[in-house]
Design a protein that fits this description.
By secondary structure, the chain is α+β, with helices and mostly antiparallel strands. 35% of the residues lie in helices and 25% in strands. The chain contains 19 helices and 28 strands. One of its GO terms (biological process) is intracellular signal transduction.
């Protein structure tokens, strides 16, 4: 069993930020740090003091993390980015909000004395003697100290204070991973000082030394314990009273910490088997457990439950059957065809999750070129006459201002071009669409035809498909391409308007150009001819999409787990030179990399023949590299063994913080079950005759920092974690147990009444009765597991709580 921690983060918006540019505005973005390590960077919102981001992330972490901090920055093209302020939430603070922290938080000034990180390795001993006892403090080493100098490192030394006396270690130049191995002794007397303070500092030649953190110990407790040794987290100095809140603006956040104790796989098998049986029985099942889960799941957690169930059934090869059951349930309670799949039901939410998991790569292939073109052209586009701004489009060839009608016509031409390109790409993509998506749409189409067979409803099966494909997949991706990983940055105001109008046009096509959709916004009329053509194209596309041979559909049953071989791909720069000389940017060569479930490979171009670089089973660690090593903060290292069993390291450079963390996350996930994973590594490089990080001269020396193999970002193409999904579903069922038991009593009463009148029949509550037994068994398994799991930190009893 294992304890899993995750943070669900939504960075909503900021307000009343201070102006950092001479224009009286700012270009704000956010950086999210977990224990001072940057893991997320939002897009920059240009020229505003009230930015909106609306970005969501989920981060998987070890339970030992301490805090998450949100730094609001101002991007500058010609100088170092300015720090506007920060919001810091400790693990204890987040744990106090079972349903998550949500709201506005004031930004506070970033105080250098509070910007500490890292740990220090100490050994503390009380030495007996014939007279006065002595306190011995051995300062061994430190790791992950904050870089305070321009070169991306520090020059650390340690001061030890006790009873009015201070002793210092030597200075280790240019290192955030220093090793001292120095010992100091102090006389111990009854009633003398009760606190031993160990402080880390960065030495500076011409300015004041920078504070790196401290640890304070309770000496009376040490007197009783006699000896203690371990790694101790460096703490900041006391907050300065002059730090003010409120004048730096505010940040709206939603942060939810979830801790789950995941039991061994065998514990979840009865629950998984029960749910799978219900799905296989479909609507013929006596208990209809899935229907009861749907009816009793609240709106606010329906998306999460839908995603968990979908992933569970993906792992069991039953995703299509699960979705088919939900289709039947919704069709069974829908009498009006025009309301079909328009609510946020479990069917709609599950299908949304399914399309993102199964069709994201397909979506990129269709939309990618069109979205790129819109961003690159930056044309002014507006169809609403009340919003047209003539001055934004300049003059016509006759050197006279354009009329609103001319602006609208030019805008319509641009949108017709984009919409036509999108529909053409869609029409050509039938074979590119993942087979499992085609099979699911075919089942949906068939079920709707059975439910609404009359001629007056001939468009309803098509609209059912487009309600997911267009309204819940293509259109949201067009409106917010960054959230679907189509672009790295948010669109500016002009591009956003173009994307919104294009998304509206796609929605009109998806609605099959109904009179209601046409009347909703009459100013969309200039696109009417293209929309009409698009409806015919879309119907033809759907007809071909759902035309799957029965044999082909049966063959798909083995592919429903959706574990595509390709995990991640994209351009990276690989370090190709060897030797002791200086490492320049020219030593990196750009190649196209592909990570599959077997190996990390590269090629000159995406279509070139690939050469295997690292076999997946040989990966031992994937970690960041210190900025000073290559002059870049976006370099990662993959430590692996070659075919001869010899340790090797590959250095790969990414173009941004987010790309770096996404690649690290993907590599860590696919290698998490490898044997021989490293617990420590060197964040620097072996240059000349020593490691640049800790200055050790043995190349095979044990790493000076701990690996972070459990720090990952959740992505839609993540490998399925069957046990975690089962645990999350168990947790949800536990929350609705009382409601289900009440339903169980109602069903049992109805069954008894039916037996008296009609004779014995199948017991409709059998599925629920089995579920309650499964829940009881899981409760017992959890209660017998270690309740607390790993400690939140190495919290020594000798530390003085301040």
């Amino acid at each position: 069993m294992a304890k899993r921690s995750s943070l669900s983060i939504r960075i909503v918006e900021g307000k009343n930020l201070p102006a950092k540019d001479i224009t009286g505005s700012s270009d704000p973005y956010c950086i999210v740090k977990v224990d001072n390590e940057p893991i997320i960077r939002t897009a920059t919102v240009w020229k505003t003091l009230c930015p909106f981001w609306g970005e969501e992330y989920k981060v998987h972490l070890p339970p030992t993390f301490h805090s998450v901090a949100f730094y609001v920055m101002d991007e500058d093209a010609l100088s170092r980015d300015d720090v506007i302020g920060k919001v810091c939430l400790t693990r204890d603070t987040l744990a106090a909000y079972p349903k998550g922290f949500s709201g506005w938080a004031h930004l506070t000034e970033v105080d250098p004395d509070e910007e500490v990180q890292g740990e220090i390795h100490l050994r503390l001993e009380v030495l007996p003697g014939t007279g006065t006892r002595r306190l011995r403090c051995s300062v061994l080493e430190a790791r992950d100290l904050a870089p305070k100098d321009w070169n991306g490192a520090s020059d650390p030394f340690v001061r030890v204070h006790y009873n009015g006396r201070t002793q210092e270690t030597s200075i280790v130049k240019k290192s955030c991973y220093p090793r001292w191995n120095e010992t100091f002794e102090f006389e111990l007397e009854e009633g003398a000082g009760e606190a031993l303070c160990v402080e880390a500092w960065d030495w500076d030649l011409v300015s004041r030394n920078d504070f790196l953190g401290k640890v304070v110990f309770n000496v009376p407790g040490l007197w009783a314990a006699q000896q203690e040794e371990g790694w101790f987290r460096l703490q900041p100095d006391k907050p300065k009273s002059w730090l003010d809140e409120g004048n730096l603006g505010s940040l709206q956040l939603e942060v939810w910490l979830r801790d789950e104790t995941v039991l061994p796989s065998g514990c979840y098998q009865p629950l998984v088997q029960l749910l799978c049986r219900e799905v296989k029985l479909g609507t013929q099942g006596p208990g209809q457990l899935i229907a009861l889960i749907e009816a009793n799941t609240s709106t606010e957690c329906r998306q999460e439950v839908a995603t968990n169930l979908l992933k569970l059934f993906l792992g069991q090869g039953l995703a299509k059957d699960f979705l088919d059951l939900l289709f039947q349930l919704e069709l069974g309670r829908t009498s009006e065809a025009n309301t079909l799949f328009r609510s946020n039901s479990l069917a709609s939410k599950s299908m949304e999750s399914f399309l993102k998991v199964a069709g994201m790569r397909y979506l990129h292939g269709i939309l990618g070129p069109i979205i790129d073109r819109v961003f690159e052209e930056k044309k002014y586009v507006e169809l609403d006459p009340s919003k047209v701004e003539v001055k934004d489009v300049g003059c016509s060839g006759l050197h006279r201002p354009q009329t609103k009608a001319e602006v609208v016509e030019q805008s319509a031409q641009t949108l017709r071009s984009h919409l036509g390109a999108l529909l053409s790409a869609l029409s050509r993509s039938v074979r590119a669409c993942p087979a499992v998506v085609r099979a699911t749409f075919r089942q949906l189409f068939r079920r709707v035809c059975e439910r609404f067979p009359s001629a007056q409803h001939e468009n309803v099966p098509f609209i059912a498909v487009t309600s997911f494909l267009c309204l819940r997949f293509l259109s949201p991706a067009i409106m917010a391409p960054k959230l679907f990983h189509l672009r790295e940055r948010h669109a500016d105001a002009r591009t956003s308007r173009t994307l919104l109008l294009l998304a509206k046009a796609v929605q009109n096509v998806g609605n099959m150009d109904t009179p209601a959709s046409r009347a909703k916004e009459a100013w969309m009329e200039p696109l009417q001819s293209t929309v009409c053509q698009g409806v015919a194209q879309l119907k033809d596309f759907i007809t071909k999409l759902v035309d799957i041979e029965e044999k082909e559909e049966l063959d798909l049953q083995q592919a429903l787990s959706l574990q595509a071989p390709l995990v991640k791909e994209g351009p990276l720069f690989i370090h190709r030179t060897k030797g002791k000389g200086p490492l320049m940017s020219s030593s990196f060569k750009k190649l196209h990399f592909s990570l599959t479930t077997e190996a990390l490979s590269f090629a000159k171009t995406p279509t070139s023949k690939k050469t295997s670089l690292i076999k997946l089973a040989n990966i031992r660690a994937a970690e960041k590299v210190e900025e000073k090593s290559f002059g870049s903060s976006h370099v990662m290292q993959i430590i692996y063994t070659d075919d001869a069993g010899q340790p090797q390291t590959a250095y790969l450079q990414c173009k941004s913080m987010n790309e770096l963390n996404q690649w690290l996350s993907a590599l860590r996930k696919v290698s998490i079950n490898n044997t021989g994973l490293l617990g420590s590594y060197h964040p620097g490089i072996f240059r000349g005759d020593k490691w640049s990080c800790c200055h050790q001269k043995d190349k095979t020396d044990v790493g000076c920092d701990k690996t972070r193999s459990r720090v990952t970002l959740q992505e839609w193409n993540d490998p399925l974690d069957h046990d975690l999904e089962a645990q999350l579903i168990y947790r949800h069922l536990l929350g609705m147990e009382a409601t289900l038991r009440e339903k169980h009593r109602e069903l049992r009463g109805a069954t008894e009444a039916s037996t008296v009148l009609e004779g014995p029949g199948p017991a409709p509550e059998d599925g629920l009765a089995q579920l309650f037994q499964v829940l009881e068994d899981l409760k017992k398994a959890h209660s017998s597991s270690p309740a607390a799991g790993p400690p939140l930190e190495h919290r020594n009893l000798l530390e003085l709580q301040t």
